[in-house]
Write a structure and sequence with these properties.
By secondary structure, the chain is α/β, with parallel strands linked by helices. The chain folds into two domains: 1-145, 3-Layer(aba) Sandwich (Rossmann fold); 156-295, Rossmann fold (3-Layer(aba) Sandwich), CATH 3.40.50.620. It is built from eleven helices and ten strands. The protein has helices spanning 13-20, 50-69, 86-97, 119-127, 137-142, 145-151, 167-176, 197-219, 234-244, 267-275, 286-294; strands at residues 4-8, 30-38, 73-81, 101-106, 131-136, 158-162, 184-191, 224-231, 249-253, 280-283. The chain has a ten-stranded mixed beta sheet with strand order 3-2-1-4-5-10-9-6-7-8, sandwiched between helices. β4, α4 (119-127) and β5 form a beta-alpha-beta unit. α3 (86-97) crosses α4 (119-127).
């Protein structure tokens, strides 16, 4: 499932902590380590970026050696772009290298307080065709020692999986059964419909029944499962529960039951990516991948 991954890096301390997380993702064998040099802008030396390129080669070689000592097969890519964007270069590399996953950090924490998703990560999320794991740079900065161990080496120890019971969401739920070493699972449904008390109660009752089915489905594989029903705005309830249960990862589909199935990422997934303080794994459904490939 995670055999070959693309890991973009900017050589920051946060990016290095993101790379460390590879050691706790089961099945990873090949790593494509990518650094993108943005040569679309003028520098103090003019349009030349030779010094930056040479420095990148040295740092990439060091990170390659670290990963190889950890047992990974590593390919290094230094891409110099004179047009387009960094995110486009990442997506092109993912397609050319035929990776199964992109793992990247997110700077976030810019001028808009509370928005934790950087622009490059946001573009990869919106336009990507493959699975994506986003690890907060702000989170990596705050986590040290034993606390860091809970969120990175234990990235699958306590997984929150939101569902709207759509086929796309069921794909994400099914993936939980295929991840080795997964620990505790929290499955959440947020009720958003109902104008009267009776209507809300009916939706809550239906959700309870369907969550029970999901719990039985996952428990048959020996997984520990807890279910949750919330009433309110999906993004808020998902991020709030993630903090309450101290989830190590939020795993969700890129799409759900929204009206605009043709868009590249659903509004709830994007909202969680923007606001959540936890690592986020975004699962693309086969139907969505096919739609993107034909667009």
């Amino acid at each position: 499932m995670f055999e070959k991954v693309l890991v973009p890096t900017d050589f920051s301390e946060h990016a290095k902590k993101t790379i460390v997380c590879l050691t706790r993702i089961p099945g990873v064998r090949e790593v494509v380590l990518q650094h993108v040099i943005n040569a679309t802008h003028y520098t103090k030396r003019g349009w030349t970026h030779e010094t930056e390129i040479e420095n990148a080669k040295i740092q990439m070689d060091e990170e390659k050696k670290v990963l190889e000592r950890l047992g990974f097969s590593v390919k290094v890519k230094i891409d110099v772009i004179t047009s387009g964007s960094v995110s486009a270069a990442i997506l092109t590399a993912a397609e050319c290298e035929k990776v199964s996953f992109i793992i990247m950090g997110s700077r976030g924490g810019g001028q808009i307080r509370g928005f934790l998703l950087g622009s490059v990560s946001a573009d990869v999320l919106r336009q990507g065709k493959t699975y994506l794991l986003i690890i907060r740079h702000s989170l990596a900065k705050e986590l040290n020692g034993a606390v860091f161990d809970r969120f990175c080496p234990g990235i699958f120890s306590r997984v929150l999986c939101p569902t709207d019971f759509s086929n796309a969401a069921q794909t994400a739920v099914s993936m939980l059964k295929r991840i080795e070493g997964i620990g505790e699972i929290h499955v959440l449904h947020v009720v958003t419909k109902g104008e009267t008390h009776d209507e809300i109660e009916a939706h809550m009752s239906e959700a309870k029944e369907r969550l029970g089915e999901i719990k039985t489905y996952l428990s048959m594989s020996g997984l520990r499962v807890e279910t949750h029903i919330r009433l309110g705005h999906p993004t808020h309830e998902i991020t709030a529960l993630a903090d309450e249960v101290e989830s190590s990862l939020i795993l969700m589909s890129s799409h759900g039951n929204g009206m605009l199935a043709e868009i590249l990422v659903g509004s709830t997934t994007l909202g969680v990516a923007i606001h959540a303080k936890r690592p986020l794994m975004v699962i693309r459904t086969p139907a969505q991948l096919q739609k993107q490939a034909s667009s």
